[in-house]
């Protein structure tokens, strides 16, 4: 049974940085293509970034390019989301997602491409 658990969220001032982690269990590290999504209060779940199973390909939403970076350590079954220059509009619950199927990296921008989801971690950015 595959489980994803996020951590690393919290309250941070605008301009600060956070690194979110997502640990996968029930599966080997490089079996899952992984993505990050976020959901602000009263809004839908939006794609943030994705990374291929090997880590050699990444893909980002235009709105976060240059500030967000997805990486992974397959030996630790962990995917990371580094967020720099945080803005109040980055306030949201951040979810990691994973899937065993192999698609072009751009396909992982769609929430429907994922089978497994974490429970989310709250990021709050104060101005």
Tags for this model:
single chain, globular, seven-stranded mixed beta sheet, four-stranded antiparallel beta sheet, 11 strands, 0% helix, mainly beta
Strand and helix map with partners:
Elements: E1 3-7, E2 10-13, E3 18-25, E4 33-39, E5 45-51, E6 58-60, E7 68-73, E8 78-83, E9 92-99, E10 116-117, E11 121-126
Parallel strand pairs: 2-11
Antiparallel strand pairs: 1-3, 3-8, 4-5, 4-9, 5-6, 7-8, 9-10, 9-11
Description:
With 127 residues, this protein is mostly beta strands. 0% of the residues lie in helices and 49% in strands. The chain has no helices and eleven strands. The strands form two sheets. Strands 2, 4, 5, 6, 9, 10 and 11 form a seven-stranded mixed beta sheet that branches. β7 and β8 (78-83) form a beta hairpin. The radius of gyration is 13 Å and the shape is globular.
Concise account of the structure shown:
The chain is mainly β and 127 residues long. The protein has strands at residues 3-7, 10-13, 18-25, 33-39, 45-51, 58-60, 68-73, 78-83, 92-99, 116-117, 121-126.
Specify the structural class. mainly beta
How many beta strands in the DSSP annotation?
Answer: 11
Helical content (DSSP H or I, runs of 4+): under 10%
Strand count, sense and barrel status of the largest sheet are: 7 strands, mixed
Q: How many H/I helical runs? A: 0
Radius of gyration: 13 Å
Overall pLDDT level: 96
Give the ordered list of helices and strands. Answer: EEEEEEEEEEE
| Shape verdict | globular
- How far apart lie the N and C ends? 40 Å
Estimate the strand proportion. Answer: over 45%
């Amino acid at each position: 049974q595959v489980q994803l658990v996020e951590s690393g969220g919290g309250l941070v001032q605008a301009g600060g940085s956070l690194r979110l982690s997502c640990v996968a269990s029930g599966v080997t590290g490089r079996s899952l293509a992984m993505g990050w999504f976020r959901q602000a209060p009263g809004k839908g779940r939006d794609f943030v970034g994705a990374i291929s199973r090997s880590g050699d390909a990444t893909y980002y939403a235009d709105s976060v390019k240059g500030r967000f970076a997805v990486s992974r350590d397959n030996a630790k079954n962990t995917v990371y989301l580094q967020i720099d220059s945080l803005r109040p509009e980055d306030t949201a619950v951040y979810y990691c997602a994973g899937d065993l199927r192999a698609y072009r990296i751009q396909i992982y921008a769609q929430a429907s491409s994922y089978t497994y989801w974490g429970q989310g971690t709250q990021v709050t950015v104060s101005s």
